[in-house]
Amino acid sequence: METQGGIDRLIELMSRLPGLGPRSARRAVLHMLKKRGQVMAPLAQVLAEVAATARDCVTCGNIGDSDLCPICRDDRRANGEICVVEDVADLWAMERGQAFRGRYHVLGGTLSALDAVGPDELRIPKLVDRVRDEGVTEVILALNATVDGQTTAHYIADVLGDTVKVTSLAQGVPVGSELDYLDDGTIGAALRARRGI
Ligand SMILES: [Zn+2]
pTM for the whole thing? Predict the structure, then answer.
């Protein structure tokens, strides 16, 4: 097939997105090309806007459009509870469940001896600061039920010691599973049944 320059480049970039291979990327691009006015132009505009404004929240690590994310800015949310998650995807999954109305803390990964990820590579020191400074009464560990996730949970429980109540999501999180793939009701049930760690 004759090369089409920008269109080929667009397909190539789209095919790198999670969940899209070359075939889906071609279909999506062709759809946009056919609907240039209704789909492609607005998408291009929003992409440019979000690329210019998106940033990591300085407090919790969520991704938002200013230095403080909408959750940290929301003064209707309770201050005493921090829910600790591995990744922004997990925070968004918890929010979809609408079961938690406190604050969040995104670690940015898990401890991993294999990948040489230590506490300072994660946002654990910042979590310790927040527990001390924000009048936190409970830290809820909503980490994935993987070996690294559970290792990280126990490390955080040790570091925080008896300065604060530390709990963990309970049944409803299948072993080896990731929060982002659970349905919203399951996340709510696991949150309500959380236990001390
Ligand atoms: Zn935030």
Answer: 0.80
Q: Which residue has the tokens 């997990």?
A: 90
In this structure, is the dihedral angle defined by the CA atoms of residues 50, 51, 57 and 62, taken in order, positive or negative? Answer: positive
Residue 179 Cα to ligand 1 middle (Å): 19
Query: Could you tell me the pLDDT band of residue 97, with boundaries at 50, 70 and 90?
Result: confident
Q: What is the pLDDT of residue 172?
A: 52
| Digit-coded pLDDT (tens) for 8-31 | 999 999 999 999 999 999 999 999
CB 145 within 8 Å of CB 174: yes
Which strand ranges, in their side-by-side order, compose the sheet holding 103-106?
103-106, 81-85, 138-141, 165-168, 195-196
Which DSSP category does 4 fall into? -
Give the CB-side neighbour count of residue 128, counting CA atoms within 13 A: 14
Kindly give the distance from the C-alpha atom of residue 164 to the centroid of ligand 1, in angstroms, as a whole number: 21
Tell me the three state secondary structure of residue 148.
helix
Task: For strands 165-168 and 138-141, give the pairing.
Answer: parallel
Least Cα distance to 81 among 156, 152, 165 occurs for 165
Q: How far does the centroid of ligand 1 lie from the alpha carbon of residue 60, in Å?
A: 4
Q: How far is the CA of 174 from the centre of ligand 1 (A)?
A: 28
Separation of 14 CA from ligand 1 center, angstroms? 29
Whether 11 and 28 have beta carbons less than 8 Å apart is answered as: no
Q: What residues have a C-beta under 5 A from ligand 1, the ion? A: 57, 59-60, 62, 69, 72
